[in-house]
Write a structure and sequence with these properties.
With 64 residues, the chain is mostly loops. The protein has 1 helix and no strands. The protein starts with 22 loop residues before the first helix and ends in a 35-residue tail after the last helix. The longest helix has 7 residues.
């Protein structure tokens, strides 16, 4: 009995490459939310912040 020769099917699949955004890309794309505005007539003052010691991308900005 002669069986037909069957060629194997070979498929090349490219791996999916997930790009991980950089810190700068995360910062630029993040929604800006003004939580508190502090007005002070003082020329010099000290601010202290506590953030649960977690590195999670929070930021604080100041302006004159």
């Amino acid at each position: 009995m002669n069986l037909p020769k069957i060629e194997p099917i070979v498929k090349t699949v490219e791996p999916v490459r997930e790009t991980v955004p950089t810190i700068e890309e995360k910062f630029v794309s993040r929604k800006k939310v003004l939580t508190t505005e502090i007005l002070s007539p003082a020329i010099q003052f000290e601010l202290r912040f506590y953030d649960n010691a977690e590195i999670d991308g929070d930021s604080i900005s100041f302006s004159e």
